[in-house]
Amino acid sequence: MLQVEDLYAGYGASEVLTGTTLSVKKGTLVALIGANGAGKTTTMRAISGGLKPSKGKVVLDGKEVQGLDASRIARLGLAHSPEGRKVFGPLSVEDNLLLGAYSRLPRFFGFHAKAQADLDRVYDLFPKLKERHKQAAGTLSGGEQQMLAIGRALMARPKVMLLDEPSMGLAPVIVQEVFRTIRRLKEEGITLLLVEQFAKSALEVADYAYVMERGRIAVEGTPAELSRNERVIAAYLG
Fold first, then answer.
1. What CATH number is associated with residue 149?
2. How many other CB atoms are there within 10 angstroms of residue 64's CB atom?
3. What is the SS3 assignment for 14?
4. Domain range for residue 102?
5. pLDDT tens column, 182-216
6. Domain count for the chain
7. What sign has the CA pseudo-torsion 147, 152, 154, 158?
8. Where on the phi/psi map is residue 85: left (φ > 0), alpha (ψ -120 to 50), or beta?
9. CB-based burial of residue 11 (10 Å sphere; 0-12 exposed, 13-18 middle, 19+ buried)?
């Protein structure tokens, strides 16, 4: 469903990714773990179009998308819940959610009617968002904003969903809630690429995982394999 091949990308003269290769099969959850600065978020941005790769391929559902605008990649079926949540603070919760569906629904007549089923799905997943649907997104707690960011991505009905550091800055009890949601998305068959600072939690929900170091994949395998790898244990699971 998603294939990244020999990807190079960076910022200005600084190359962050130096040959990243990974794949995500349909209906699976793949985790990408590694230390801060390893290139995980840069990988996500290069996949979703927020950053133009200098070399390599990104193949989404059989179509090469590297170099396309983020809006075009979104219309082709990729949704990105970014690091730091990036909700639109002055807008209501519901307006934030509706923006997630903008790329696939009619611009004028019938937009709200066609979006209602998706809103109902998100509100079923996150009842707190339904309670606060008229509230400004910027007034939500950090955990609620993360729920909103995930819900907004779901509104696009994506073929592949990128989750970048969904637990960042959240209290432990909220982190547990976020991972319960991720498990539910996996059970629903959504194809997911997860970047997560808590390696142990990521491996508990993943079907396969990659360890990134210095802009490229250093180790890969099933969660069981990585959990027995002394290098991974020492660096991320100890």
1. 3.40.50.300
2. 12
3. strand
4. 2-237
5. 999 999 999 999 999 889 999 999 999 999 999 99
6. 1
7. negative
8. left
9. exposed
